[in-house]
Amino acid sequence: MARRESAAAGPGSRALIVDLIRSAGPISRAELVQATGLTQPTISIIVRRLIDDGVVRETGATVSTGGKPRILLVINSHAAYGVGIHVAADAFTCVVTDTRGGTVGRQLVARPVGEKPDAAVDRLAALHRDVTEGLGLLPQSVAGLAVVGPGPVDVAQGRFLALPGLEDWAELDLRDALAERLGVPVLIDSDAAAAAVGEFWGRQVSRERTFGCLYMNSAIGSGVVLDGALHRGAGSNAGKIGHVAVVRDGRSCHCGNHGCLEQYAAPGVLAEQARSMPALAARLDIRPEDPDARAFDILARAAIYGDGEAYALLDASARLLAEGAVTLANIWDLDTLVLAGPGFAVAGSIYVTQIRHYLSRRAYSRQIHGVQVDLSSNPRDSAAVGGAALVLQGAVAPGHGPKVTAPE
Fold first, then answer.
1. Which uninterrupted H or E stretch holds 330?
2. In sequence order, what are the residues at sequence separation of 6 or more whose Cβ sits closer than 8 angstroms to the Cβ of residue 125?
3. Quick one: which of 371, 379, 374, 389 has its CA closest to 332?
4. Is 139 exposed, middle or buried (0-12, 13-18, 19+ CB in 10 A)?
5. Closest Cα to residue 323, out of 267, 245, 256, 253?
6. What is the β-pairing status of strands 159-160 and 153-154?
7. CA 392 → CA 67, 80, 100, 251, distances in Å?
8. How far apart are CA 67 and CA 292, in angstroms?
9. What is the pTM of this model?
10. What's the rounded Cα separation, in Å, for the pair 240 and 222?
């Protein structure tokens, strides 16, 4: 498999032009000529095809300075819709976005404990139908469905290999099963990779940026977008920053390593630490039977509102994650980093502050350029939104995203 999404075949590719209009629009044909170095006739041909396909539309004109006013181009937000479903052990979150990444629908459904894989596939298919039909979307307007969750993921075969709490999915051909039920293109991918593409797409980030996303849910991962394309690695599982060792000969991890970042900074670890502190747990009403996600949200909220013990736990996690962010920034020479995922939904400000502090003082290229660090505008749904972005990128900008084709 390619080291990243197959790059556009040449500078005149559809993917390149779509990416420029997406990130820089409204933009004129003349500006596209200047940005790409292509001839005016070549740009005109590509743009005409995009307009005919409904991906791009003309909008207004520039003020004339003596010549003919230049017609401006933007992405048609209604050209296609993407559907992303984020899989967690206890729930499925479905999000629908338009072509520009705007959320047009969302639904969360609980997943019964012990639900069998086949029943879960039926539930996923029903969720897709309920949301798209409820929004009144025509079948031909839906570019496809991406189901995303924690890795490792076999993207080529369309299956999750080791979902926490859902280990019985390892033998499930999820992509083919869903495509057969729904009759739409289906992608299976990791939540961190999806979040990276979603943030890149929805924020209209320029393809010239070296863009990174740090994702925290039950696990910790990352994604990097280079020249508009997600870097994937040999097996499409790049970016597992949570499995970088931060403590020599530390706690054993399910990945086979020891001292992994995830074992010291992930939400579940902090929830367990809070439970081991009786006074703190009693004060915050964190019960032994509470799911880790709920316990962590309670702990994070207390930290934000000034509880000293809660803040100390969150601050220690943030400092370790900042170490990981420095590693990520140094490896890729990032100029932009976004924090996404449910782990940043409540106390994201604590993490942003520490990561900015560490990068400003320890990033290798800090004397040449800074690293812009932002918090996702929708941390909880970022993976589902990213799943929708994955199918949209593959459908309207082929070459920069995964290949999206209708099932046979």
1. helix 308-332
2. 178, 181, 182
3. 371
4. exposed
5. 245
6. antiparallel
7. 37, 7, 9, 40
8. 63
9. 0.90
10. 6
Integer CA distances (angstroms), 44 to 20, 25, 38, 48, 53, in order: 14, 16, 10, 6, 14
Q: Could you list the pLDDT tens digit for every one of the 408 residues in the chain?
A: 333 443 333 434 788 899 899 888 799 999 999 988 888 999 999 999 999 999 999 987 665 555 567 889 999 999 999 999 999 878 899 999 999 989 999 999 998 877 888 888 999 999 999 999 999 999 999 999 999 998 788 888 888 887 766 777 777 889 999 999 999 999 999 999 999 999 999 898 988 899 999 999 989 999 999 988 899 888 888 899 999 999 989 999 988 999 999 999 999 999 999 999 999 999 999 999 999 999 999 999 999 999 999 999 999 999 999 999 999 999 999 999 999 999 999 999 999 999 999 999 999 999 999 999 999 999 999 999 999 999 998 888 877 667 776 666
Residue 260 identity (one-letter amino acid): C
The vertex-367 CA angle with 364 and 369, nearest 5°, equals: 90
What are the residue ranges of helices labelled H in 190-307? 191-202, 262-265, 267-275, 278-284, 292-304
- Label the pairing between strands 211-216 and 153-154: unpaired
